[in-house]
Every structure is written in structure tokens, then in C-alpha cells.
Amino acid sequence: xKAPLALLAGCMLAHAALAQGxxxxxxxxxxxxxxxxDPKQMERYLKLGEKTASVCASCHGPAGQSVQxxxxxxxxxxxxxxxxxxxxxxxxxxxxxxxxxxxxxxSADERVGAAVYYASQPARRLPAKDAALAARGKAIxxxxxxxxxxxxGTGSEQVARVAGQHADYLGASIRRYKEGVRLDERMAxxxxxxxxxxxxxxxxxVASL
Length: 209
Description:
The chain is built from eleven helices and no strands. It is mainly α.
């Protein structure tokens, strides 16, 4: 009976490790709330987050400023929103083959650390290359996006900061919502009627915020 008992013990340990790595969004948010109430704990998370982010820098750039137009900037992104996305990547609700593997290897503390570190980094603002195109995009933004993402695109704890995001990344994301690849009916309803030229104008404006 030793072999079955050893196997059972191994399965229990593996399950415990998986449970730690795939902490639900609520548990992660509880850690974030506690950290915000305790400066020493927040400092610890920031240091851990900086270390964790160094692994992510090859794609998301130093301090969350991505140099790849199809990879999102994470600097100044809302911490609770980042944690929620990490939870979705960890449990399969959001699919991205490369990111899923990385997130599943992260502990709950590493996820919280990364979220608060990126949230603490300054955002980068680049002026619009085509002012007329951005002006047209502003009208679309105010009609379709401002209610959720805010006047200046900074979002909230539940909604992504889009201000200063790469136009290419924003455009690809909008198209995934239109095509139903990313499941969010409210977003899909807002962007479903946008033509390609509308998306180009909208993303030019948002990238300049």
C-alpha cells in the first residue's frame, strides 16, 4: 500500500501548489486591499513586483513601457484590473498560450507584486501623429468609450486604463471583441458597428491620451 499512499500524497501536494498558483481574483484582491492599508506590506510587494517585472521586460518593456506595438504597456495600469486579468489567464478564462504558462508559474504574491509595481510606474504620453485622425477618434471615443474608460482613458479598478496604449495593440483588441474572440458583450456591443477606419481613428486618439 505504500506506493498508492505515496501517489496520493504527491497528488495532494500538486493540487495544493496548483491552488496557490491559480488564486481566484477575489483572493488576490484581498491581498491588494491589505497591502494598501499597510505601507510596509506594500513596500514588500513593490520590491517583489520589480523583481517579477524584470522577467516580463523582454515583452512588456522596462517599467512596463512596451517597445513592441502589439504588446500592451502595463505602466500605470490599474492594479486591481491587472490582478483580475492574471486570474483569468491562470484559470483559463482568458486565453493566451504564452502568457498562460508564465502566469501559472507565478505565486499569488508575485501576481500582486507585479500589479502594484506596474500601477506605480509613470505612464507615457505620445502626441498624435495625425491630429485630424485623432480628432475624429475623439468623437468616437466620447460616444462609445468614455462612459466606462473615463474622460481621459484612465479606467477604474474594474476597467482597463487605455490612455497611452499602443494603437496597434488597441486595434487588435477591438477586433477580437468584434469577432467574439474575447467574450465581453458590453465591449462587443460598443465596437461591433465600427468600421476599420473608425478603429484606426479611435486608436490614434486613445494612444495620444
